[in-house]
Amino acid sequence: MSTTGKVIKCRAAILWKPNAPFSIEEVEVAPPKAKEVRIKIVATGLCGTEMNVLESNTCYPIILGHEGAGIVESVGEGVSTIKTGDSVITLFLPQCGECASCLNSKGNCCVQMKQSYTHVMSDGTSRFTCKGKPVYHFANTSTFSEYTVIREISVAKIDKVAPLEKVCLISCGFSTGYGAAINTAKVTPGSTCAVFGLGGVGLSVIMGCKVAGAARIIGVDINKSKFEKAKELGATECISPQDFKKPIQEVLVDMIGAGVEFCFEVIGNPETVAAALASCHESHGVCVIVGLLKYGVQLKIDGFLFLSGRTLKGTVLGGWKSRENVSQLVSEYMAKKFNLDPLITHNLKLEKINEAVELMKTGKCIRCVLIL
């Protein structure tokens, strides 16, 4: 029985207020409007971004989730690049193909990303309803729902045979870390690298550094249980700041002799950003902020660090052009150019989402994929 053009009732994990657990509810998902796509979500990752939102102020009630993959159920008027039945990946970073960033070969921060800040669709309304009340969208995606409605420019068509429960990580975590090394930092063969934070994104940075040919990759984390996985994926050594009496930047400079050439902060901590920058080689070191810093947070950095030539950079989705490059990354995964399996430590059903949150909080989980 076709559901095209009809409201679909399904389950979703709703956050009703800050610092509260997710609640599994029945929601109504409206049909897609012009230039929109309705997707049956098959799998979605629990990302650190959601962990941050759990403790922040946003619009409520809201359906979170942005690292997703699924099958197109129906399309709205004017949709030309996606059709019913297509396998797709959801994109928190759209690619309109028309703004200055999309048209610039070096940019990828599409101006349409700002639409996600409103937590509604382009027409100012929501496609979700629960208990008679509208529910807000998140990051243009809202993948913690069995069905979701997304703008066409925030969807990437992928290989039909790609395993959605694995390639959903290419929606955010893997692409962000891997691309930060390859695209943003442009890690060079034989170079030295340090990665602060060995979660799913940090491990993806390590994978990117290894592919780029780095000779020495140092993982930095206070959770030593992550060291084995980091070494498995390419780290040559791992250290914990808690094992030293002096600042970690001094430790790294001593280890290398003159500071690392490429440094990545994958935590989202302003103090760690300052330490990562200070760990860089004074003449040509590059530091990339990959971790999500909270809105309004100010960085306290010694200006003298910039006198000699260090560079501090930001990145979003690892510098990839979302719609075109995410599809290519899935093809590369299918060609076995990289392996996502080591990043996925847990698979849980949607109704176990609060259990997944606890696993993330305790550091026992690299990436948990929720199966819908």
Plain-language structure description:
The chain has 372 residues and is an alpha/beta fold. Helices cover 23% and strands 23% of the residues. The strands form 3 sheets. Strands 3, 4, 5, 8, 9, 16 and 17 form a 7-stranded mixed sheet that branches. Strands 12-11-10-13-14-15 form a 6-stranded parallel sheet, with helices on both faces. Helix 10 links the parallel strand 16 and strand 17 (368-371). The longest helix is centred in the middle third of the chain and has 13 residues, at 173-185. The chain is globular.
Please give the alpha-carbon distance between the first and last residues. 21 Å
Shape: globular
Beta-strand percent range: 15-25%
The secondary-structure element order is: EEEHEEHEEEEHHEHEHEHEHEEHEHE
**Count of extended strands:** 17
- In round numbers, the mean pLDDT is 95
Low-confidence stretches: none
Largest sheet: 7 strands, mixed
Class by SSE composition: alpha/beta
- Provide the gyration radius in Å: 21 Å
Count, helices: 10
Helicity level, as a percent range?
10-25%
